User: Fold this.
Amino acid sequence: MSALEAFMSLDTLNLIALLAVVFIGLPHGAMDGALAMHFGWTSRPALVSMFLIAYVGLAGVVVLAWALAPVLTFTAFLAISVYHFGRGDASSAGAGRITVESMARGGLVIGGISQLHRSEVDVIFQALVNGNTSGVWLFLNAVALVSVVAIIEALLFKNSRERLSFALELTGLFLLFLAVPPLLGFAIYFCFVHSVRHFSSMRELMRLTVSNLHITKTTVGLSLLTWGVGLVVLLQQSSTMEVEAALLNVVFIGLAALTVPHMALVDGMLHRGPRTA
Assistant:
């Protein structure tokens, strides 16, 4: 059975997981419009244009890179996802400890899901890169090893109260990832842990600079735009492949494309505290 044929056997739970990522998870990145307002980049039309051109341009570069070098681009996407997810959940103080905790948390999500369901995940990876995935697995093996070391180190430097909370959360996520299919486990984490924390922290950060109405309007507007573009691409892709395979590619390549400018804002330009994404 080919990778594509195997993917065609996805059950309803996996389809629901993909749709949850699209309709619940992806909109957390649509708050970037409100973040631009927070930075003052919407005060003049020229600044708005520059922001949109830079944001869309970065996303376009990712899509082009994926087309030219899918394995390398996908591996790079996994790498930045480890950092972004982990950094968004980390609660430690100090750059060194934040980095360690970020690797522990992000490594559990990316490395944990992959290693716990290698055969199922490899089918998905093959469909995404349309080729050999051995290089991707070399990276994920390294992530798993680094994550274990980082988890142990984080447990050692946290105080007793933080240690308990950290251990309980990571244990709960590990058991979740072990118990459910990989796409569903990722969707639950992405939608109900990472995205919820992002929504909460961004609202707290911007409460004095951007009204709730403007946050809602920009988030809904950019979400609708993203879904509209995604639907157009999905219709185009589904003309040459099965709908399920087209949906997989649109969701994850789109997620990668949007993650890069999102990270540039949240993890780069926003000098934030431990829990602002």
Notes: Residues 3-269 form one domain. The chain has twelve helices and no strands. The first helix runs from residue 3 to 7. The radius of gyration is 19 Å.
